[in-house]
Amino acid sequence: MNKLLSSSIREVSRRIYDGAVRPSDICETCVKLTALVKPLNAYVTVTSDVAGEQASDADARQRRNSLLGQLDGIPVAIKDNYCVKGGPTTCASRMLANFSPGYNATVYERLRKRGAVLIGKTNLDEFAMGSGTVDSLYGPTKNLWGSEVLSQFYSYESDGSPINEWKKDAWRIAGGSSGGSAVAVATGTCYAALGSDTGGSTRNPASYCGLIGLKPTYGLVSRYGLIPLLNSMDVPGILARTVDDTVLILNAIAGPDPADPTTVQSEYVPINLPKTIDVSNLRIGIPKEYGVRGISEEVQACWDEVSRHLEEAGASIVPVSLPHTDYSIVCYSVLNRCDVASNLACYDGIEYGHRADEWSSAHELYKKTRSEGFNDVVKGRILVGNYFLLAENYKEYYVKAMKMRRLIAQDFDALWNGNIDLLLTPTTLTEAPTYDEFTQLDNQTQCLIQDHCTQPANMAGLPAINVPIKLSRRGLPLSLQLMAPIFHEQRLLTAAKWIEQTVRFPRLELKDSCLLE
Ligand code: GLN
């Protein structure tokens, strides 16, 4: 069973179809594993009861020979900013700590339609505002890599022996804001998880946790039931251990949704990756603006090495420029705060969410409820957003940022029109920092650094993917990002798979001594 937890979805599904293993056995093992890795704090809620019921339904389908496809009986996790009916959906905020939605997010419905089993809801920065999963009501999520949990329970093949400098208090952040989803997948408690990605929240934790992290084209996947951060940039993201697993999940959740008018109207054509991949006809741009100060020597070396691999396989590597890149994150900060001010105005203590105990006027009710319910990061963003949206400031900030957004998108268009097929960049500038290093800077400053390479794709609505490349000298994941023109997921995932096969990032396995049966 231990081996099965680190297998691909396809392999596990084959065993389920063969009758070699029951979905409920897999589910039970995954739930047990969540207890073992609890110190990492990946989950806000482990939905063991729901998972048990869903898995025994899958058992019944297995007995009747009526399984629903490759996701039937496969454990998954979902970031706790997606509505799942009947249980808590907290956004890791006191404001929603006791909120239980009356409907399901479309992405969850679609996974359930294919028989996937919900293991739990995962930790995040409050309302997905952050890049470290350190600003959660439930405490920070810790990275598996560089942790005691890794050395205790997992093994992996590696070329060099990592500098083992594990120290109790020097644990690494998981990245964010979907850090809980990343750690849930990295530890093997589930095969894939949904994150959300507004500025990098799926790709950033994927980079630090050694996973595939896909941000699909804006509008390809429904946002219905995803509690919004910045409506015109939010997309559901996928975290998985392999590109093939990512494709299975994407094919299950993508496509038009009448409940989300911003989803694309044309029918979704499932991605089907070729058996043998030829990259020789690809023109891959290397944007110079992504080679910023602060990029670590090791990330730079990965970037050079993968470019070389691609070139050796016949691809053209083309130095390119995206001149407005540096403005992206600044404009994002403005737009983000404006949307936050507006989206979070509904939490007033009246309809749902936290309500302050004592108050003597409606004004006092709002004031107390909101100051008790939100953390300082959220409150700061609401205040700044309302300032940007004042009648006298609106043009100066919001309108200007929107104009710049157009220029950033046009930078990308110019490259695609100039026959560039894909862009290759770092995802994060370094390996995962320690908690102490990370929290020396505030949430806003960290976002400026962490989202530098990831945020422009959200500005332009492009699909982008994190691919883990190798382990650093300290034994931590180093990753790169690929970006493609809108709706070119097929090309993006194909190239990502080629890189995956070429670099062979180490696969984690549970040690035999850690028996979960
Ligand atoms: N780090 C960015 C922010 O805090 C992006 C977060 C996200 O993608 N959800 O806003």
From TrEMBL:
One of its GO terms (cellular component) is mitochondrion. Belongs to the amidase family. GatA subfamily. The keyword Transmembrane does not apply. Pfam families: Amidase. Allows the formation of correctly charged Gln-tRNA(Gln) through the transamidation of misacylated Glu-tRNA(Gln) in the mitochondria. The reaction takes place in the presence of glutamine and ATP through an activated gamma-phospho-Glu-tRNA(Gln). InterPro entries: Amidase, Amidase_dom, AS_sf, GatA. The gene is GatA. The active site is at 79 (charge relay system), 177 (charge relay system), 201 (acyl-ester intermediate). This is Glutamyl-tRNA(Gln) amidotransferase subunit A, mitochondrial. GO terms for molecular function: ATP binding; glutaminyl-tRNA synthase (glutamine-hydrolyzing) activity; transferase activity. It comes from Lasius niger (Black garden ant). Subunit of the heterotrimeric GatCAB amidotransferase (AdT) complex, composed of A, B and C subunits. It is found in: Mitochondrion.
